[in-house]
Amino acid sequence: MSLRETALEEIRSAIAVGDLGEDRIFSAAGLAKTLGMSLSPVREAMMSLVADGTVEAVPNRGYRLVPVTRADLDEILHLRLLLAAPAVQALCDARDPVLVRNLRTAADDAVVAAEAEDRKSFFAADRRFHFLILSRGLGERAASIGLRLRDQSRVAHDEEKPRQADRDSAAQLNRLIDLIEAGEAERAVDLVDDNLRYFLT
Hints:
Strand order of the largest sheet: 1-2
CATH class of the largest domain: Mainly Alpha
Largest sheet: 2 strands, antiparallel
Order of helices and strands: HHHEEHHHHHH
Distance between the termini: 32 Å
Strand content: under 5%
CATH superfamily of the largest domain: GntR ligand-binding domain-like
Shape: globular
Helix content: over 70%
Radius of gyration: 17 Å
CATH topology of the largest domain: Four Helix Bundle (Hemerythrin (Met), subunit A)
């Protein structure tokens, strides 16, 4: 993984868990210092997020998150489901054992991170899992669109219960793999629908 990709993953995770709030303006230099990285890859990562619509540039000041409302989250969820449902259907039809092993690795990483209350690692593993679902089910372009939508989401949990929500979401990933492996498409689609609602509960 390149330094730019590392910075991008760290910043995406920080956005998802709320470490970078919508009410803040932050500079690439400040983020670089926080991440312990040089300025160049962090600036490149921020420009990628601007291009994705997750962040907007504030002239002469830095960057801020593009605000996301509940209506935005509902729309994002609807679009993600339009991609995830046929992807899961295709995977249930294929029942590829190599893909199942790769999904298990990502799911197990998510479970370990959730149990350790390491939210950034949890989000990174969860992101890898959903990339595999979309890229193998529909193709790289669909995966890119789906992850861009995911990155525009925010976690909406109450502060008192996010850790349990992480554990519940991680546990769903292995159940989803079981259904894909068994070719139970209808139940798998229902479960991925529930899993994607993580960002709304």
